[in-house]
Amino acid sequence: MTESSSDKLIEALRKAVSRTSMLAEGNDPKLDSVVRQIRQAITKGADANEIQDVLNAAEPLLIQSDEAQLSRAKQVRNCLQDLIELLEKQNTSSVPQNEKKQLEAQIRINWQVSSQWPHLLKGFLSLAEKTLVQTEHNPSKSSFLKRFFNRETQVITPKNDQEIMVQISHTLAGLTNNLMLPSHYDDDISDLNKALLGNNNLQQLPALLDEVINLIMVAIGKTQENLTNYLNQLNKQLASINESITSSYHSQKSLSESREGFNTKLQQQVTNTSQAVKGASDLDSLKALIDDRLSTISTTMSEYRTQMLRQEKHATQSITQLKNKVTRMEKDTASLRSLLQEKLAQAMTDSLTDLPNRTAYQDAILPLCKIMQKTQKPICLAVCDIDHFKKVNDTWGHLAGDKVLRLVPKQIRSILSKEDLMFRYGGEEFVIVFPELTLTQATERAEAIRLAVAKTPFNMQGEPVSISVSIGIAELIPQEEPESLFARADKQLYLAKESGRNKVMVNK
Ligand SMILES: Nc1nc2c(ncn2[C@@H]2O[C@H](COP(=O)(O)OP(=O)(O)OP(=O)(O)O)[C@@H](O)[C@H]2O)c(=O)[nH]1
Question: Residue ranges of the GGDEF domain (predicted)?
């Protein structure tokens, strides 16, 4: 390998490793520190031995990470077993034994496979549902599960059922607490635990169980597992690249050693020849001596040439192998990047309505306002809130509330143009941005939205229900920050609510 091609390769490796390790950061503090050490060693140009030391030090941490995964798996298995036991304990309906056995078998086979955990929890939900079907055929048994799933017909939870439900909630809260997820999930876990522990309402339980499943699916089933696999893979690739660099270093070394050996041998042969020439007594013996020496020198040279050719071939093979390894690492980097982009898109989307969420709004609004200010075009913002939404939840239940939350933005979308942007800002509040519309035009569109929602016949358990929205609207003024634009529109929303709701109020 020539010096410049080996330098280029090592430089390419450094870049690839630095870039890939940066992508993998932020998921587990301990693995982060390993990744950082690897990157530092590579960036400061550490030699093969130093890099090997860092990789050796990384190994116990990767083993620890595996052990943590095993302990999480045990938590999940115990939780599922507890949930099945709780189902059996409630004495108003009997759990179908076939399904129960099937679920237990699945738990035995799959408890260590984190991507299967959501399926196992769903299996528990389905077992519970089957218990319900069974009791529907036997109406004399009034199951707590019947009320659990058939939320519309029962609102008050009897005391015995409440106790079982509280135990189920506590078991689930224990599970979410022990998942050991990355710290950016702390808020989600704490919200979910609060909801679980504070809940004594059977109606909320299936939705909460869904939340638990979502949390496991997003945090463990996909990202975490992929990244752990990726880091293990990265570790292996680094070790193998390290081996290739060490071996090409050795072959370079032995090449220069054999060159030195050849020089010494050649010099020795020349010295021997000149000494022999000095000592030669006649022309014939001098001729024979020189012939003999020349043939020795020629053998040495041809041996050297053969050795050189062999080593050059070996060096070419090493270069090809190294190139292939770099290409593989680049490919892995690209697939990890697309996985992270997918996660980012998920993080920007509200899962209930599929609308871009508040984070997406905050990312979009500043550049949008800047462009409009620069091009001197108008832009308006509307804050839209469903009226008396709490009453919808209280009267028809949380799932009916969710249905309204999905339907209202669909109505709104039917009025918007494709340039208008809608975000779920939080709860029952939506933000709509109207780029390039004047205040008058945006107000007309907001009024059309209000009318469309008010006219839509919503249906709750066969009963027609009127839903309306209140809207506050404002236009961006020169040099204004997006926060101030939002505050002015929000104030108008407040006034719309104050003056009786189902209104559009404009900041003029
Ligand atoms: N079903 C459901 N309810 C939600 C969701 N997010 C927030 N809520 C509920 O939305 C309700 C909002 O109620 P309030 O802020 O008191 O307002 P409101 O009842 O709409 O009354 P006004 O805004 O004054 O007309 C609360 O009961 C929240 O629990 C959700 O994702 N799904």
Answer: 377-508
* 266 Cβ contact list (under 8 Å, min separation 6): 297, 300, 301
Q: Among 393, 450, 505, say which to mutate for ligand 1: greatest number of ligand atoms within 8 Å of CB.
A: 393
ipTM for the predicted complex comes to 0.97
Mutate to test the pocket of ligand 1, among 386, 390, 465 (most ligand atoms within 8 A of CB): 390
Residue of minimum CA distance from atom 26 in ligand 1: 390
As a whole number of angstroms, the distance between CA 88 and CA 32 comes to 44
Contacts for 199 with CB less than 8 Å, ≥ 6 apart? 165, 169, 205, 208
Q: CATH number of the domain at 358-506, please? A: 3.30.70.270
Residue 359: is it exposed, middle or buried by C-beta count within 10 angstroms (0-12/13-18/19+)? Answer: middle
Nearest CA owner, ligand 1 atom 27: 390
Task: Indicate whether this model's pTM tops 0.95.
Answer: no
Domain boundaries, the chain: 72-224, 246-322, 358-506
Q: Which of 186, 148, 190 shows the shortest CA–CA distance to 165?
A: 148
Per-residue pLDDT of the chain (508 residues; tens, 9 = 90+): 444 555 555 555 555 555 455 444 444 566 666 666 666 666 566 666 666 676 676 667 666 666 777 877 888 888 888 888 877 876 667 888 888 999 999 999 888 877 787 788 888 877 876 765 444 444 443 444 444 444 333 334 445 556 666 777 777 777 777 666 666 677 778 888 888 887 766 566 667 777 777 777 655 544 445 555 655 665 666 566 666 666 666 666 776 777 778 778 777 777 777 777 666 666 677 677 777 767 777 777 778 778 778 877 887 787 777 777 767 776 776 777 677 677 767 778 998 999 999 989 998 999 999 999 999 999 999 999 999 999 999 998 888 899 999 999 999 999 999 999 999 999 999 999 999 999 999 999 999 999 999 999 888 888 889 999 999 999 999 999 999 999 999 999 999 999 999 999 999 8
Report the nearest-CA residue for atom 7 of ligand 1: 427
Q: How far is the CA of 383 from the centre of ligand 1 (A)?
A: 15
Buried b (16+ CB within 10 A) or exposed e, 470-485: bbbbbbbeeeeebeeb
What does the DSSP 8-state code read for residue 220?
A: I
Q: How far is the CA of 151 from the centre of ligand 1 (A)?
A: 19
- Return the ligand 1 atom nearest residue 501 CA: 25
CA 446 from chain center: how many Å?
37
Instruction: Give the three-state DSSP class for 38.
Output: helix
Residues with Cβ within 8 Å of 453's Cβ and at least 6 positions away in sequence, in order, are: 408, 411, 412, 467, 468, 469
Task: Kindly report the number of other CB atoms within 10 A of residue 289's CB atom.
Answer: 16
